[in-house]
Every structure is written in C-alpha cells, then in structure tokens.
Amino acid sequence: MSLPTILFWILAVISILSAIGVVVAKNPVHSVLLLIVTFFTITGFYILLNAQFLAVVHIIVYAGAIMVLFLFVIMLMNLNASGEPQKNNLVKFAGVVAGGLLLIVLVAALKKADTGMLIQGSTNIGLIQNLGKVLFKDFVLPFEVSSILFLSAMIGAIVIGKKD
Amino acid sequence: MPSPSYPTLWPFLIYGILVLLLAGGMLFISHFLGERHQEKETDEVYEAGIEATGTARLLFPVHFYLIAMFFVIFDLEAVFIISWAIAIRDVGWGGYLAVVIFVAILVAVLIYEWRIGALNFGPQGKKILRAYRHKIKGVNHNEVVDKQNN
Amino acid sequence: MPIQNYIWLSIALFSIGVIGVLIRRNAIVIFMCIELMLNAVNLLLVAFSKYHHDASAQIFVFFIMVVAAAEVSVGLAIIVMVYRHTKSVDVNILNRLKN
Q: In angstroms, what separates the C-alpha of B81 from chain A's closest C-alpha?
C-alpha cells in the first residue's frame, strides 16, 4: 500500500468514528468538538485530493468560523448535558433504520457504477490562481448572486437577532 | 517512504508529525517536571485565595452572536477576494468589475449595519454622554434660576 | 486509489448526518448534522474534481460553503430567538405554531 492509501484509511476511520460521535454525544459541546475533528479529517482528504486552497479555506471557514458560531450559541444558552429530552427508543430505532436504508440504497445504486481510478500525481487545479481564473471567467454570475445571498443572510440575521 | 507519484505529500506529513510530537512532548515532559502537591486550596478556582463568585458557565449576551455572525460572513467574503487578488492578472477588467460589484454590496451591508447600530457594543457612550449633558444643563439652569431669585 | 472509496466514505458520512437529524431533538445538534451532510457532498465534489481534472467542482464547493455560512447564521439566529421565547432548543416544542 502506498502512503496516500494508508493515510486515506486512517483518515476515513477517524472521520466515520467522530461523525458517529457527533450524533451520539449527549453534550452539545462534545458534538461541536467531534465535528471539528471530522472537519480536520475532511481537510486531510482535500490535501490528498490536491485541493490545497480548499483545504485551507475549509479549516478557516468551518473549524475557525462556523464552529465558533455554534460554540457561541451553545454558550448563549445554558444547556447542560442532562437537560436535553431524548426521543423514545422506538423513534430512535426507526431513525437509524431509515438512515441505514438510505445508506443501503445509495450503495446499491452506485455499486455497479462505471468508475475508474483517481489520476495519480499532483495537479495544480486546486491552486488559488487556477481557482480564481475559473471563478471569474465561468462563474461570475453565481459569484455576484452569492454576495446578494450574504446581504440577505446578514440583514435577516440582524432583524431576527437584534430584537430585544 | 514517499511514493513517487505524490512528491509533495511527505514534507507536510513530517511537519504534522513534528507538530504532534512537540505538543505531546510538552504535555509529557511537564507531567514529569511540573510541581505537584495537594493542599487545601489546590483545587480551588483561584489558588491565591480569592473566592470564586459562580461558575465559568455564564451566559453571554446575545450581542456576541451578531459579532460572531459578521465574522463568519466577512471571512468567506475575504476568501473570494483573495482568490481574485491572486489571479488578478489572468482575469483582467472583467474580474475587476465583478469584484467591484461584490465589494460594493459588501460595503452596503456594512453601512446598513453601522446605521442600524448592530456594531455598537457595550454601554452606549453617546447615550450616556447625552444624559450627562442634559443633567449638567439642568443643574446650570437651576443655578441661573437661583441667581435670578437672589 | 479507486474513486469508489471516496464515494463510499461520502455516502457513509451523509447517512450518519441523516440519522443524526432523525434521532436528535436538540436543534443545534440537528444543525451540526446538516453541516456534516453538506461536508459529505463537498468531499464527493472534490473527489470528482480530481477524477475529471476539472476545477468547476471546487468552485461549487465554495458556493456550498457560502450557502452553509448563510444558512448557519440565519438558522442559529432563529434558534437563539426560539430559545429566548421558550427557554428550550427542543424541536418537539416547535410543533405548535401558536403560543
């Protein structure tokens, strides 16, 4: 096994386990921390896939900003571990079965898919310059629309959150 | 054992392992070299003897949430602007125009936040100053009235 | 490394996110599971970006991040307001539209 393959399996095991931890952790703060671990492993996959800029942005945006926002909200509320009411076991079991069925259906649908090997070796499609070129040549309109989305999100959050 | 098809992966891996070794080594060494003792006040919050006045799990005011949210949004906007700034020579004036529109919308949001007072934080300085001036003026006015009466 | 490995991993992460949304009652944890699902999709997009040697998928990931940031900021603001009104983030309390 080559080095990337070994790294892939290590990261895959960590990411699946921490993702399960996010779902089963009783304390929401533990969920946040485990989700940050998952995001770090996903960053590792991005590096393995030669998406360097995306890896850095993923750390900055997800682990650095969005999860901090989650932690802030948890600290705004006085949530203790025992305070959360649990769904009853039947509903939980049904939820797990439904999610497992989704897993099985997706796996069955893609099992025979005609896929090949990933191109080995490093490419520079993930570098900032290349991404900037593609973004500002082919995706100018979605880029402007995203700024409108930012505007509406901020104004919406201010209107909802600022009311005292 | 860097595989030949991934020539750039192993320095990063060594760097990561070194970081882990450094952080782990610090914790490991301090576990042995650090002073350990068990006195009456050791487990107190402030070992110097100041009494703690409640838990650390205090509630933050909601205003912090707005600040964190602005941080998230402006962070992502910075990502887009950086990707433009690196590719500035390749995208030319079209890209410049796109970024100008983007930044203009950004500035509009910023002005809106500023005007609505979402960036004001803590005690409202202007309001306190106005109340203080009002009070001073009231006192002066009373003094003037007193003098006229005399 | 076949791309199938990344497909299975993304499917697993996505399904874990779906299960989390279905079995938890804490609105914040449900939001985190949605983030997990978005990230599974992001991972798959990046894998196919490498597979097809095309940078468009990575741009899509940026736009998904934009949508995630907007969704999180508005959604968490709503959760904060719900918490201020009901003193709880239990989604089962929100099944009434009045009172």
A: 9
